Amino acid sequence: MVLAAKILLVIASIGLIIVVLLQSGKSAGLSGAIGGGAEQLLGKQKARGIDALLGKLTVVFGVLFMISTILLGYVLRAAA
What we know:
Distance between the termini: 14 Å
Helix content: over 70%
Largest sheet: none
Mean pLDDT: 81
Structural class: mainly alpha
Number of helices: 3
Shape: elongated
Low-confidence stretches: none
Strand content: under 5%
Order of helices and strands: HHH
Radius of gyration: 17 Å
């Protein structure tokens, strides 16, 4: 059980790192952060294609990472 949780954690970690690095930048500097936030709030800037897929994969790998971390912590505490 511990080995399976560790393997899941490593896969989720590597997947999350790769997916985040593949995403394109959303803004450029401080002015882009201020203006970009307003554009996203109003719905002018929609993610399409590969950006949408990478966004969904980021959520999936993030959830897998959190679940496997909690599972590994629970299993290691129960074993001690």
